[in-house]
Amino acid sequence: MRENLIEVLRNLKRCPLESVLAVVGICFGVGGIFLLSSIGAGVRQSIDSEVAAIGPGIMSVQASVATQNLIRESDVQAIAKTLGSQAVVSPVVESSVTMHGRNGDVSGYAIGVDSEFPDIESLTLLKGHFFTAIDNAESRSVCLINTYLVNQLFGGENPVGKQVLVNNIPLTIEGTFEVSNNVSAAANIGEVLLPISTYLNNFTSEDSITEILLKANRVQDIRLIENEVLTQLLRDHQWTIPLSDYSVFTQDNLISSSNSLKHLFSIFVWVADFVSFVVGGIGIMNVMLMAVSDRHKEIGIYLSFGATRRFIIQHFLLESSMLSLVGTVFGILLGTMTGMLLMMKGIPISFNVWVYTEDIGVGVLIGTLFGLYPSLRAATMTPGVALRH
What we know:
It is a single chain. The protein is of the alpha+beta class. It has two domains: 2-50 and 256-388, no CATH class; 58-249, no CATH class. Helices cover 58% and strands 19% of the residues. The chain is built from 13 helices and ten strands. The protein has helices at residues 2-14, 16-54, 73-83, 117-121, 133-137, 147-154, 196-202, 222-236, 251-294, 296-304, 309-344, 353-379, 383-388, and strands spanning 58-63, 87-101, 104-113, 123-128, 142-146, 163-166, 169-179, 190-195, 211-216, 246-249. A hairpin with a 2-residue loop joins strand 6 (163-166) and strand 7 (169-179). The two termini are 28 Å apart. It comes from Alicyclobacillus acidocaldarius subsp. acidocaldarius (strain ATCC 27009 / DSM 446 / BCRC 14685 / JCM 5260 / KCTC 1825 / NBRC 15652 / NCIMB 11725 / NRRL B-14509 / 104-IA) (Bacillus acidocaldarius). The chain crosses the membrane at residues 20-43, 267-292, 323-342, 354-373.
């Protein structure tokens, strides 16, 4: 094996350009496989963490986009009265707005909610306090802003007690917040929370609600609560609208949807990996076929001095595997550096031992499979035919 390895290295030095091109092909092929596999693992982890963070007891009720039977604030009040202590209920209505602070303008969302909202969304107050039920009843011009707006509008300084203009409407900041489960928040989007009555009086002319958020006090009551909510909505509209006009989303629904999404993404990754696999393999096969054609006499001498066909196959397979392994190492390095750059852009990527092991295995497999035909072609030659070329 040692002598074979030395001979392989010597042969690779004879054709440096072809060897480099093969390594480059493997590098990009394996690098693409590595990067796609890492992105796939990152996306799956991101989806799982988002779904798990929502919590098993949280529900969302929305009206169909096409329907004219929108959810009204009175519907939310009736649902809250019907459910009683079974669940915490909060209406949510939002729209895109422009916010103006000391440091300039920022686009984002104004979200009207009531005082029950923090109990559903796992709201984390960083400074100040959340507005009260009295603030909502009296439609006071108060709000809370997320950390993104704190940095963008106030340069990271404490904004509590200061004013922010939301679509040119002045609101007094009572606190700053973060939302841990990200049902309606994103770290890089400006969001203002304000009493829903203030929102309806100043930001819209309609008495319509985007969605109803609920948090069941007991997970086993989710289906019962879902039926009661839908029944109450139909009752409020005098049973004149179809049940299909409303949709209820729970963690189970999201898990089912996320599994379908992960399955489709996995298929895409496998197809892309296959293309990268073939591209890298064709480069290896091309170089090895050229090596066999250029080294007929060498093969003839081997055979004349008693080399077995098994030895010839092993020799060329070792050569193709070495090319593939070198290209795999560079491909993994290229994929890792590219992945780190993409992570800085916010793309979910997961580097784990399985991805690295899988890529090394793929690299060795490429060298073996695509080097097999040239090796067999070299081994089937007869000494006389090989020496005449």
